[in-house]
């Protein structure tokens, strides 16, 4: 009888997890740990608890159990265990902005047994996310493209959904809002094919709020609001704080763009507080810059500068050069408006340096990208170019201006068509 009870407890936890009752699942899995299971079962329970915490945005707690998994894997000296533990450590570190650590953990997992690694596509997805965090866009692109290729080979629709979502976020961050909509719409169509009874339906809210961002950027406020309201409602029901904070920032952005600054500020402040709690440092930069712009609208330039400087400090600690560039751009304008021209010029110079470091110069015409909304494309070497340069046929520009590799083909269209 005791053995039957012990067997059913993890099954109850798994069922609760599939039903998105994550807190209850955690309690069930922890109860299983008190029964002193075998080391292999204990390892699996640590992983299940880690995933539960990740799904509700409690990354610190998830990291604790990922470390427990690694301890168990080292004690057992089991390579498959080590591979999974490295993966969970990579995901946790990516989410708290420790991108270099995340990349290292991904590589460690892949090196154990790359050919047989069942997590290979997810590892390349995590690598792509971490490279984006460090603003190493060619490496991010190649990682995403590898993950997508594996997904197509294996018929893995979930990876296809997640990669297209992240590509949508990437292109939106580079001010290619049409590209962002294309990628996120592809993910949206795929996720809406999932049955309501499928546990993976939980990713619908993540895709929805990701699609809402380029909608907001292009002035489609109703579409953005509709997606956010739906995502927020479901996220609150299941305790998904990651999606909740993204929705809060988007609602605040809409209020600010419509001139309702008094309603925008509390939304930003609430989002910032929650992001600090879950360790989302990249998101904190977004919230702080939004607050800075709101105070600019309220004619409070010194407060706006203070917030932008705080955002810059966080971006520098994380190492996110694109966010740093955005902060310098805001400070350049703020100091110019307050007639502090020396400081304005300094931030302009730092902007140019960061643009060079992040390869944000077109691989064909060598002009800077991301300064205005426009279509982008990607060369086979992984460098981004203007969409207009992609269609222009010039014999004098057959090679990438950055790495001198011949473009040959445009990978971004291949990734969309899949």
Helix proportion: over 70%
The geometry reads as: globular
What pattern of helices and strands is seen along the backbone? Answer: HHHHHHHHHHHHHHHHHHEEHH
Sequence of strands across the biggest β-sheet: 1-2
Structural class, from helix and strand content?
mainly alpha
Detail the topology: elements first, then pairings.
Blueprint: H1 2-18, H2 22-33, H3 39-55, H4 59-76, H5 79-95, H6 99-112, H7 120-133, H8 137-154, H9 157-173, H10 177-191, H11 203-217, H12 221-238, H13 241-257, H14 261-278, H15 281-297, H16 301-318, H17 321-337, H18 341-357, E1 376-378, E2 384-386, H19 387-391, H20 411-417
Antiparallel strand pairs: 1-2
Helix pairs in contact: 1-2, 2-3, 3-4, 3-5, 4-5, 5-6, 5-7, 6-7, 7-8, 7-9, 8-9, 9-10, 9-11, 10-11, 11-12, 11-13, 12-13, 13-14, 13-15, 14-15, 15-16, 15-17, 16-17, 17-18
What does this protein structure show overall?
By secondary structure, this protein is mainly alpha-helical. The protein contains 20 helices and 2 strands. A hairpin with a 5-residue loop joins β1 (376-378) and β2 (384-386). α2 (22-33) packs antiparallel against α3. The longest helix is centred in the N-terminal third of the chain and has 18 residues, at 59-76. The N and C termini lie far apart (51 Å). 51% of the residues are buried.
Briefly summarize what is shown.
With 418 residues, the protein is an all-alpha fold.
Task: Give short descriptive properties of this protein.
single chain, 418 residues, mainly alpha, two-stranded antiparallel ribbon, 20 helices, 2 strands, 74% helix, globular, disordered N terminus, disordered C terminus
């Amino acid at each position: 009888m005791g053995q039957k009870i012990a067997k059913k407890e993890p099954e109850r936890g798994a069922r609760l997890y599939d039903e998105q009752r994550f807190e209850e699942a955690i309690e069930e899995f922890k109860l299983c740990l008190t029964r002193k299971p075998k080391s292999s079962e204990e390892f699996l329970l640590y992983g299940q608890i880690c995933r539960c915490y990740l799904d509700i945005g409690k990354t610190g707690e998830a990291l604790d159990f990922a470390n427990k998994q690694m301890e168990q894997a080292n004690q057992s000296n089991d390579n498959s265990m080590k591979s999974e533990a490295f993966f969970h450590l990579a995901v946790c570190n990516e989410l708290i902005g420790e991108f270099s650590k995340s990349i290292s953990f991904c590589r460690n997992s892949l090196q154990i047994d790359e050919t047989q690694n069942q997590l290979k596509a997810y590892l390349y997805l995590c690598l792509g996310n971490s490279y984006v965090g460090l603003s190493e866009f060619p490496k991010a692109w190649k990682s995403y493209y590898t993950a997508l290729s594996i997904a197509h080979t294996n018929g893995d629709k979930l990876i296809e959904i997640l990669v297209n979502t992240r590509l949508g976020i990437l292109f939106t961050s580079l001010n290619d809002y049409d590209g962002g909509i294309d990628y996120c719409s592809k993910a949206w169509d795929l996720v809406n094919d999932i049955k309501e009874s499928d546990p993976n339906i939980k990713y619908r809210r993540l895709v929805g709020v990701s699609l809402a961002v380029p909608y907001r950027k292009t002035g489609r406020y109703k579409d953005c609001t509709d997606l956010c309201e739906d995502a927020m409602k479901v996220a609150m029901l299941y305790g998904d704080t990651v999606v909740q904070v993204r929705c809060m920032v988007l609602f605040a952005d809409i209020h600010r763009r419509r001139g309702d600054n008094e309603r925008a500020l509390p939304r930003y402040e609430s989002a910032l507080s929650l992001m600090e709690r879950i360790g989302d440092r990249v998101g904190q930069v977004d919230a702080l810059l939004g607050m800075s712009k709101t105070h600019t609208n309220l004619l409070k330039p010194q407060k706006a500068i203070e917030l932008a400087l705080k955002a810059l400090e966080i971006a520098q600690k994380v190492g996110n050069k694109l966010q740093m560039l955005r902060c310098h751009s805001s400070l350049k304008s703020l100091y110019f408006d307050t007639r502090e021209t020396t400081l304005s010029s300094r931030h302009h110079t730092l902007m140019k340096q960061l643009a060079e470091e992040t390869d944000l110069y077109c691989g064909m015409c060598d002009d800077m990208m991301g300064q205005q909304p426009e279509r982008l494309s990607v060369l086979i070497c992984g460098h981004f170019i203007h969409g207009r340069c992609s269609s222009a046929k010039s014999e004098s520009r057959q090679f990438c201006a950055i790495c001198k590799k011949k473009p040959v083909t445009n990978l971004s269209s291949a990734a969309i068509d899949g």
